[in-house]
C-alpha cells in the first residue's frame, strides 16, 4: 500500500464512517479495487482511530459533561434521592445511562459474531445486498411526519433497541450511523437527539472494536508507518467535516437523500460480483 492509496482510503473512511453509506462496505470495495485482498487490520484500526478522534473533537463538551457526571456520581445520587430522581432531573446522567444501556446489546452482538463478520469481510456481494438494505432504511425515514417525543422522554428501552441495531451494523454494507439514526427516528425521538445519541453511542462501540482488533490474531498488515499516519489523519479531518454535514442533514429531516446512492452502489456491486 502506497501513501496515495492510504490517503484515499482515509478519505473514504472519513466520509463513510459518518455519512450513512457504510464505511466497512466501502473499505471492502476499495481494498478489492486496489487488489488488497487480505484485510489490512492494522491499517483499518488506524483509520478508526482517526474517525474516533473526530467524534471526540466534535462532541467534547458532551463527553466532558458525561465524565463529570461519573466523577460526581456518588454525591449526586445521595443528594438527589436516588437513581430514579437523578435520571429524571439530570440530562447528562440520563444520557450516560442511555449510552451504557445501548452499548450492552452492541457489545454482545460484537463478541458473538466478530469471527463470522471477519470471515465474510471480503465478500463483495454481501456488501451490495446490505447497501440495498441501508438505502431502504434511509428512504423509510421520509415517511416520518409525527411530532417527536420530548427529549426527556427517551428511555432505556429506546437505547437498548438502538444499541441492538448498532450491533447489527458490524455487517459490511449496513451503515452504523444510518441504521441507528433511522431507528431513533422510527421511535419518534427528536432529530437533534437522534443524531447526537447515535454518535455518542458510537464511541464505546469504536473503542470496543479497536480493543478487539488489537487483540486479534490477524492483527497486522503490510502498510508502512507513513501510510498508516497519512491514512489516519485523512480519516480524522474528512470525518470531522462529514460528521458536521450529516448532523445538519439530520436536523433538517433529509436523511433519506442518501438512499439513492446506497441503492445504486449496492445494485452495481451485486452486478459486478456475480
Overall morphology: globular
Poorly predicted segments: none
| Count of the separate structural domains | 1
- The helix-and-strand class reads mainly alpha
Approximately how much beta-strand content do the residues carry?
under 5%
Q: How many individual helices?
A: 12
What is the mean pLDDT?
86
- For the termini, the CA-CA separation is 27 Å
Radius of gyration: 19 Å
Number of separate strands:
0
Q: Which H/E pattern describes the elements?
A: HHHHHHHHHHHH
Largest sheet: none
Helical content class: over 70%
Describe this structure as you would to a colleague.
The protein has 274 residues and is an all-alpha fold. The protein has one domain. Helices cover 77% and strands 0% of the residues. The protein has 12 helices and no strands. Helix 1 packs parallel to helix 11, helix 5 crosses helix 6 and helix 10 packs antiparallel against helix 11. The longest helix has 30 residues.
Features:
single chain, 274 residues, mainly alpha, 77% helix
Please summarize what this structure is.
With 274 residues, this protein is mainly α.
Structural topology:
Layout: H1 3-18, H2 23-33, H3 41-58, H4 60-80, H5 83-89, H6 91-120, H7 124-140, H8 156-168, H9 176-186, H10 191-215, H11 225-251, H12 259-273
Helix pairs in contact: 1-2, 1-3, 1-11, 2-7, 3-10, 3-11, 4-6, 5-6, 6-8, 6-10, 7-12, 8-9, 9-10, 10-11
Amino acid at each position: 500500500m502506497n501513501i496515495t492509496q492510504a490517503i484515499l482510503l482515509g478519505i473514504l473512511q472519513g466520509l463513510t464512517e459518518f455519512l450513512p453509506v457504510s464505511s466497512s462496505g466501502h473499505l471492502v470495495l476499495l481494498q478489492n479495487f486496489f487488489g488488497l485482498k487480505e484485510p489490512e487490520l492494522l491499517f483499518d484500526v488506524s483509520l478508526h482511530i482517526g474517525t474516533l478522534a473526530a467524534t471526540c473533537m466534535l462532541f467534547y463538551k458532551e463527553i466532558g459533561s458525561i465524565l463529570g457526571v461519573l466523577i460526581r456520581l456518588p454525591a449526586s445520587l445521595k443528594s438527589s434521592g436516588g437513581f430514579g430522581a437523578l435520571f429524571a432531573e439530570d440530562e447528562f446522567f440520563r444520557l450516560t445511562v442511555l449510552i451504557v444501556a445501548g452499548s450492552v446489546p452492541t457489545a454482545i452482538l460484537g463478541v458473538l459474531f466478530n469471527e463470522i463478520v471477519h470471515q465474510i469481510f471480503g465478500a463483495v456481494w454481501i456488501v451490495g445486498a446490505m447497501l440495498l438494505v441501508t438505502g431502504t432504511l434511509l428512504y423509510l425515514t421520509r415517511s416520518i411526519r409525527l411530532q417527536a417525543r420530548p427529549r426527556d422522554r427517551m428511555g432505556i428501552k429506546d437505547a437498548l433497541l438502538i444499541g441492538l441495531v448498532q450491533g447489527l451494523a458490524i455487517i459490511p454494507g449496513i451503515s452504523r450511523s444510518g441504521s441507528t439514526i433511522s431507528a431513533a427516528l422510527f421511535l419518534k425521538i427528536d432529530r437533534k437527539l437522534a443524531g447526537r445519541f447515535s454518535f455518542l453511542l458510537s464511541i464505546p462501540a469504536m473503542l470496543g472494536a479497536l480493543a478487539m482488533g488489537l487483540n486479534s490474531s490477524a492483527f497486522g498488515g503490510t502498510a508502512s508507518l507513513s501510510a498508516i499516519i497519512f491514512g489516519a489523519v485523512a480519516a480524522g479531518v474528512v470525518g470531522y467535516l462529514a460528521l458536521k454535514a450529516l448532523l445538519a442533514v439530520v436536523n433538517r429531516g433529509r436523511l433519506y437523500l442518501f438512499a439513492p446512492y446506497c441503492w445504486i452502489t449496492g445494485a452495481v456491486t451485486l452486478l459486478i460480483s456475480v
